[in-house]
């Protein structure tokens, strides 16, 4: 999610904004799993995924599903360049954070909601916590790579 934005350039002055925020804030553990798109699907860093129990493949978390994808399995890690579209029927391997600290403001859900606006917020927070994800707000600034 790091981004460099050129704001102004006039005369001898130049203003550049640097966003070095990340989904993972530290002490993260990762897993890799396959995602097969059902229709053209845009996925972004921070997307929360569940796993379909019948296939073992990732599915964007769907809180009304009954195929086990209503429970979080992990959060899409930085590295896809913000977001990308996966074509219908295409299978890709994704890297997910499944344990550690994550920035709650960077979590993305299929319907565009945030973790704080999800109706079942408390239940979702418990599921994420049970998975091993600790929701934090803000950026990790104590590491050298920031």
Give the topology.
Blueprint: E1 3-10, E2 13-19, E3 24-36, E4 41-44, E5 48-51, E6 58-60, E7 74-76, E8 83-86, E9 91-103, H1 121-131, E10 133-136
Parallel strand pairs: 9-10
Antiparallel strand pairs: 1-2, 3-9, 4-8, 5-6, 5-7, 7-9
Structure description:
There is one protein chain. This protein has 146 residues and is mostly beta strands. It has a single domain (21-136), classed as Head decoration protein D (Virus Head Decoration Protein, Chain: A, Beta Barrel), CATH 2.40.300. Helices cover 8% and strands 43% of the residues. Strands 3, 5, 6, 7, 9 and 10 form a six-stranded mixed beta sheet that branches. A two-stranded antiparallel sheet has the order 1-2. The mean pLDDT is 79.
Features:
globular, 10 strands, mainly beta, 43% strand, 1 helix, Virus Head Decoration Protein, Chain: A, 146 residues, two-stranded antiparallel ribbon
Give a quick rundown of the structure.
With 146 residues, the protein is mostly beta strands. The chain is 8% helix and 43% strand.
CATH topology: Virus Head Decoration Protein, Chain: A
CATH class: Mainly Beta
Percent of residues in helices comes to under 10%
Number of helices: 1
The number of domains is 1
Rounded mean pLDDT score: 79
Order of helices and strands: EEEEEEEEEHE
Class inferred from helices and paired strands: mainly beta
The count of DSSP E runs of length 2 or more, i.e. the number of strands, is 10
Report the portion of residues in β strands. Answer: 35-45%
What's the story with the biggest beta sheet? 6 strands, mixed
Instruction: Give the distance, in angstroms, between the N- and C-terminal Cα atoms.
Output: 12 Å
């Amino acid at each position: 999610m790091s981004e460099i934005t050129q704001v102004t350039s006039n005369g001898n002055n130049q203003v550049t904004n640097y966003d070095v925020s990340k989904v993972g804030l530290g002490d993260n553990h990762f897993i890799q799993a396959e995602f097969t798109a059902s229709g053209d699907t845009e996925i972004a860093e921070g997307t929360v995924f569940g796993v379909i129990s019948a296939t073992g493949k990732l599915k964007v978390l769907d809180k009304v599903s009954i195929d086990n994808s209503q429970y979080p399995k992990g959060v899409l890690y930085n590295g896809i360049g913000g977001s990308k579209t996966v074509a219908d029927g295409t299978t890709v391997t994704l890297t997910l954070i499944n344990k550690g600290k994550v920035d709650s403001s960077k979590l993305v859900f299929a319907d565009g909601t945030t973790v704080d606006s999800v109706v079942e917020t408390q239940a979702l927070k418990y599921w994420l916590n049970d998975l091993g994800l600790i929701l934090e707000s803000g950026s990790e600034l104590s590491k050298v790579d920031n």
